[in-house]
Amino acid sequence: MIPLVCEGSEPVIVRKSREVVVQNDFGSFHLSSYQVFCDDRTELHGVLRTSSLEGTVPVRLNSACFTSEVLRDKRCDCAWQISEALQKFSRWQKGVLIYHFAHEGRGLGLMGKIACYQLMDQGHNAEDAAATLGLPIDSRRFDSSAVILADLRVKRVKLLTENPRKIAALSAAGIEVAETEQLTNPDPDLAGYYEEKRRLFGL
Ligand SMILES: [Zn+2]
To answer: Is residue 116, in this structure, part of any structural domain at all?
Structure first.
């Protein structure tokens, strides 16, 4: 049965697809999609998982990044991170990738992201650019991932990030974050991007 309202601010799965098997450069995975309702909106998630989800499961919460993942823009490392995560899942024969379509530009959307980039090209840092536009620099919520992990019967995870907000969101929802691992691209061209990320988000 599909719930019509979201009780309080708790995320609720309103629809999920069946699974299909997809094969990519990294191996064979099960693909499904989930619509999760919370805060008056429904957000779409793509979920890619390995066959086995026993024990501590490596998990990557991936925010959509059209500019990096599709256009291969070098302002950020999102395309590299998704490849790195899938390579690890393939090597470990275990893992779940949850892809948040609504998280483009840390929740700014593509319009807001491009407007920020334009200001950053004029010398603003990311924080000033978002503030100038009157937008929050990071409006993403990660608790929708917890309900998806619960639906997959995943209780204990190795989270492929050290983002404190992602760790806190899963922990608060009862998912045990047993380990974390930061995915950091050694490309020296990304040093400035990482420095800004550490300053603003603590990772
Ligand atoms: Zn990106």
So the answer is: no
